[in-house]
Specification:
The protein is an alpha/beta fold. About 25% of the residues lie in helices and about 30% in strands. It folds into 2 domains: about 1-110 and about 225-310, FAD/NAD(P)-binding domain; about 115-225, 3-Layer(bba) Sandwich (FAD/NAD(P)-binding domain). It has helices at about 10-25, 55-70, 130-135, 150-160, 180-185, 275-310; strands spanning about 1-10, 30, 70-75, 80-85, 85-90, 95-105, 110, 125-130, 145, 165-170, 190, 195-200, 205-210, 215-220, 220-225, 225-230, 245, 250, 265.
């Protein structure tokens, strides 16, 4: 079967786009590797009417909606993509090749954490990055901010909104300048110089931060600023690569989601690093509508050409 659209990635952007395309009566396939970025988190927040839903339940419900509108889903990894005349093909890790008229890439991103022992084990639980995703759950707790860049100083001021016990561990971040030091003093934010050796984990929870001199500072939540790297593996084979920016890498596209490679569209965190679940889902819908219009114009051009050929 040749699909109208193959969606690579089964997160909120990909599933939302696939539902919209299914409702537009398009033949759609979602190829999902089955490793969502938010899998470690207990719940999804700021998603109206679904606040607190677990990532597993959210993705299961999304896949069911895709199937309700006639979409196909397979759990597999796309290793490469190529052009074959008017079609685009994707090759899966098991060697299968599948063709479509368009590709919608919604592969998301990878959070590359600072190299501090203990962070990965508690990532998405007590080790977090987004105050709007986790701030309410961390309210009133002892919060530490691991300094990894100038952004960490901004993070410390932000997280003070949710707790009056915030400590910035400078680690690799620059020391606050005079104005920032005054702001921190005014808000009661402590600043600890020196390197962080590890995040202390006891009884399956974060209990503190150990400094390089052995000092342990008790903390219940640790905020980090990961490098946000686009999962763009299938795209280089089509001549499309992710672009470096201040936060990591992202695939550059038009507001419609159209990339510089004809027939290839993107949505969600692979192109918008700051998008949360609800905004990624909205982007999937928006891009799917633009993509469907592109297919409509292609269908119309083919019909016109068919009439002209018949008239000869």
């Amino acid at each position: 079967m040749t699909y109208d659209v193959i969606v690579i990635g089964g997160g909120p952007a990909g599933l939302s786009g696939a539902v919209a395309l299914g409702r537009a009566l398009r033949k759609v396939l979602v190829v999902d590797a089955g490793s969502p970025r938010n899998a470690p988190a207990e719940g999804i927040h700021n998603y109206l009417t679904h606040d607190g839903i677990s990532p597993a339940r959210f993705h299961a419900a999304g896949r069911a909606e895709v199937e309700r509108y006639g979409g196909d889903l397979i759990e597999a990894t796309v290793t490469s993509a190529a052009r074959d005349g008017d079609l685009l093909t994707v090759t899966l890790a098991d060697g299968r090749t599948i063709a479509a008229r368009r590709l919608l890439v919604t592969t998301g991103l990878t959070d590359e954490l600072p190299r501090v022992p203990g962070l990965r084990e508690r990532w998405g639980r007590e080790v977090v990055h987004c105050p709007y995703c986790h701030g309410y759950e961390a309210r009133g707790r002892a919060i530490g901010v691991l300094g990894s860049s100038p952004l960490s100083l901004h993070q410390a001021l932000m997280w003070r909104q949710w707790s009056d016990d915030v400590t910035l561990f400078l680690h690799d971040a620059p020391a606050p300048d005079a104005e920032q030091a005054e702001q921190f003093a005014a808000r009661g934010i402590s600043v600890v110089p020196g390197k962080v050796a590890e995040a202390v984990v006891e009884d399956d929870r974060l209990t503190g931060v150990r400094l390089s001199d052995g000092t342990v500072v008790p903390r219940e939540v640790l905020v980090v600023a990961p490098r946000l790297t686009a999962n763009a593996e299938p795209l280089p084979s089509l001549g499309l690569t992710a672009t470096e920016n201040d936060f990591g890498t992202a695939v550059v596209a038009e507001p419609s989601g159209r990339t510089e490679v004809p027939g290839v569209w993107v949505a969600g965190n692979v192109t918008d690093q700051m998008a949360q679940v609800i905004s990624s889902a909205a982007a999937g819908l928006h891009v799917a509508a633009q993509l469907n219009m592109d297919l409509i114009m292609d269908d119309t051009a083919r019909a016109v050409a068919g009439l002209a050929a018949a008239g000869r």
